[in-house]
Write a structure and sequence with these properties.
451 residues; 9 strands; D-Maltodextrin-Binding Protein, domain 2; 20 helices; nine-stranded mixed beta sheet; alpha/beta; 2 domains; single chain
Length: 451
């Protein structure tokens, strides 16, 4: 009996001791096992701030060309930084999707989508004093500078050019040169149509509205940018100064642009599936010699050569021909692959840490060679592609313009592109009608942005 009592007492003491240890260890155990996490007191967890869960950084982009490469770099960063997980989200209609994200509170930490309205609303972190700028070409820093504040809210890793890619073999066979005016350009396309029945003279992936929005940025807004200059055009667009923009005028940039599109359409020089063809369809058609001309930037070169390496040496590159009598051809020469950190990010330092990693020399060499465009970083030397000579020639032949970052947030490049889709199907009977409609939408969006 005595022996039994002693055993019972011993068991009770062990139970008490174990129970006491469990209480003192609860917060620690809760941070390391799911089972314990279910029992931990929420208030204690908040007070201690002790958590083994990694920090998630959401990266939101609309750059289709770089999704796979960025996933590789992100995977490598995540492996090297076990406390941080970067997740990439790609959306084709990124400029509109981000509006929903800001409105719903599902705000990314890092994004490639930056608009002036959201800069004005303070939605992006001021990156003016970051160390990256010491390595970046001063001209690119100027292009990334907000005209209103003089600060930088986005940082670009690359420089890019956009214009018209053309098939050299076809042009040389027909004795065609690089057109200066749109009328000359249509004459060249007509010769291609008459002599190459299985080739589309001018192929557009019109289903992806951002490409049509680019036509407005480069061709229509290009008129404004070369007439006013880079800084003055930014100021006029931001102020919606129609005494300088002339958006709805006959003979103005929008009406001249619409007239060019209507004329080219009516002459059967675009692909018949203009409205249903995608970016991928366009790249494939050009790479396989089924399209004589496409409108694209350096970002498309990698995809073309990956699909058909034999196109190397057969790709020409020229500016967009002038669409108004008193202007010259234009070529995009601008910042590319720009990144911003949102002010709603709960982890700005971790977001900067990822950008630090992305901007490492080795990664930037890799990135530049992948996207086939020169790096903005002066310490990065990359063999970025076979079009160096063609690009240099095009840059000397055209007026340099930048992207239109000053559009009101309610009227994105995708929205503008959808208006071009409507123009193509005949929803606007005349070019004048299109220009008036464009101005009305622009004015409405601008007014809403400035209320």
């Amino acid at each position: 009996m005595k022996r039994t009592i002693k055993l019972l007492v011993a068991v009770m003491m062990i139970t008490v001791l174990v129970g006491g240890c469990a209480k003192t260890e609860d917060p620690v155990v809760a941070t390391n096992t799911d089972e314990a996490a279910d029992t931990v007191n929420d208030e204690v967890a908040v007070e201690t701030g002790d958590s083994s869960d990694p920090i998630t950084i959401k990266f939101f982009t609309g750059k289709v060309e770089t999704v796979d490469l960025m996933n590789e770099i992100i995977s490598e960063f995540n492996a090297a930084n076990p406390g941080i997980i970067v997740e990439q989200e790609f959306q084709k209609d990124a400029s509109n999707v981000i509006k929903v994200k800001f409105a719903s509170g599902d705000v990314p930490d890092i994004t490639t989508v930056v608009t002036q309205d959201y800069i004005d609303q303070g939605k992006y972190l001021d990156l003016t004093n970051e160390v990256w700028w010491d390595r970046i070409d001063p001209a690119i820093r100027d292009l990334c500078t907000d005209v209103k504040s003089g600060n930088q809210y986005r940082v670009a890793s690359n420089m890019t050019m956009a214009g018209l890619y053309y098939n050299k073999a076809i042009f040389e066979d027909l004795g065609l040169g690089e057109a200066v005016t749109w009328s000359e350009f249509e004459d060249d396309l007509t010769q291609i149509k008459d002599n190459y029945s299985d080739v589309t003279p001018f192929f557009m992936g019109g289903k992806d509205s951002w490409m049509l929005g680019h036509l407005i940025e480069f061709m229509a807004h290009g008129v404004i940018k070369q007439e006013l200059g880079i800084t003055e055009s930014k100021v006029a667009l931001l102020a919606n100064d129609d005494s300088k923009l002339h958006l709805g005028d006959v003979g103005g940039p929008m009406e001249s642009f619409a007239a060019a599109i209507i004329s080219t359409r009516d002459k059967g020089l675009f692909n018949s599936d203009f409205l249903t063809a995608t970016y991928d369809n366009q790249i494939e058609a050009f790479a396989m010699g089924k399209a004589a001309v496409i409108s694209q930037g350096m970002w498309a070169l990698g995809g073309i050569l990956e699909m058909n390496p034999e196109m190397t040496g057969n790709i020409g590159f020229m500016p967009y021909p002038a669409i108004t009598p008193d202007t010259k051809p234009v070529i995009l020469s601008a910042e590319d692959s720009a990144y911003a950190i949102t002010t709603d990010s709960e982890h700005p330092e971790e977001a900067k840490k990822f950008l630090d990693y992305l901007f490492q020399v080795d990664n930037m060499v890799r990135y530049s060679e992948f996207v086939k465009s020169p790096s903005a970083f002066t310490d990065v030397s990359a063999d970025w592609g076979p079009l160096k000579d063609e690009v240099a020639q095009a840059l000397s032949a055209g007026i340099h313009i930048g992207f239109t970052n000053e559009s009101p947030s309610g009227f994105s490049g995708d929205d503008a592109g959808r208006m071009v889709q409507e123009l193509f199907v005949g929803e606007y009977a005349t070019s004048e009608e299109f220009a008036i409609a464009y101005k009305e939408v622009w004015d409405k969006a601008w007014s809403a942005s400035n209320e």
